[in-house]
Amino acid sequence: MPVNNDLPEHALERLRGLRSQGHPGGVFTSDLSVNEFLLVRDAGFEPIGLVVGSSIYHIGYQQAMWRQSMEMDVLTQAMYHARELAMSRMEEEAAELGADGVVGVRLEVTRYEWGADMAEFLAIGTAVAAREGGHSYKSHSGKPFTSDLSGQDFWTLLQAGYRPLSLVMGSCVYHVAHQGMFQSLKNVGQNVELTNFTQALYDARELAMERMQTEAHEEKAEGIVGVRLEERSHGWGSHVIEFFAVGTAVTPIRADHNISKPQLILSLND
């Protein structure tokens, strides 16, 4: 098993005890439910072990104009980079195990009392290996695939003639302009669309979705399944919001796959 300097020694010690290609006598660990575990095995994959990636990141500062809606580029870049670091370390653990991919990936952001501008970005999932050779399930870059699909959805995807390529995501941290006092008074008692708010949130969501789609294009995917669009402020205040789009990029593995001409985004769950 090659030593990766980006992983802590205790992580390498834990990985050596798992049921990997180099250690068939080890145990496996998994956060899959019993039903998910059985369906992943029925799909032809063996769970190897729980893999984790972490990055504690200091998020910089950016000033926004009170009356101006705008993207907070510094914050967007920080959220992107921190998640990418966590994802890459999770993938490194999977590669150490000789895994073909990681299923059930969760991305979490947690703040601690150490500082208002610090957060831990965590990626966690179950590494799996295909029981039979002859077909590569890794991404086009040779890395283990990553997917946030449940065990049930993973099984269904393979039955339909598709396979996951990579977890793709898009982020946009956006400052929504405050409404002026006179405009607020003018709207009292009225049914009226607040167009400045509508346009700001619309633009921010579209930027996050577009960036997720760009990642899918780079992965040479045919579509994205299980898309989620999340909104969180992360303690920045009520008018600074992160819009985060995430889903699993997929590609066909059989000529008779069930979806002939899927759209880039196959499902959207707000």
Automatic annotation (TrEMBL):
Residue intervals passing through the bilayer: none
Q: Where is the signal peptide?
A: none
List the Pfam families.
YbjQ_1 (PF01906)
Instruction: Tell me where on the tree of life, at the top rank, the source sits.
Output: Bacteria
Database matches in InterPro entries: UPF0145_dom_sf, UPF0145_YbjQ-like
Q: Which family does it belong to?
A: Belongs to the UPF0145 family.
Its recorded name reads Uncharacterized protein YbjQ (UPF0145 family)
Q: Which organism is it from?
A: Alicyclobacillus tolerans
Q: What is the lineage of its organism?
A: Bacteria, Bacillati, Bacillota, Bacilli, Bacillales
